[in-house]
Amino acid sequence: MALAPSTTADYCNWDPDDASFPEEFAWGASTAAYQIEGGWNADGKGPSVWDTFTHRAGERVFENQTGDVACSSYALWEEDLKCIKQLGLTHYRFSLSWSRLLPDGTTGFINQKGVDYYNNMIDSLLANSVTPMVTLYHFDLPQCLEDQGGWRSSVTVEAFEAYAQFCFKTFGDRVKLWITINEPYVVAELGYEKGTMAPGVKEPGTGAYLSAHNMIKAHAAAWQTYDKEFRKRQGGLVSIALNSDWAEPLHPNSPDDQEAAKRHIGFCLDWFATPIFLNGDYPDIMKSKISAISKKQGYPSSRLPEFTEEEKMAIRGTADFFAVNYYTARKIKHQDYACCQPSTTGDKEAEQVTDPSWPVATGSSWLAVVPWGLRHLLKYIKDTYNHPIIYITENGFSQSDPAPLDDSQRWEYFRLTLQEILKAIYIDNVQVKGYFVWSLLDNFEWTCGYSSRFGLFHVDFENAALPRVPYKSAIEYAKVIANNRLMDSQG
Ligand code: PNW
Question: Which of 8, 211, 213, 334 has its CA 20 to 30 A from that of 304?
Answer without folding.
Answer: 334
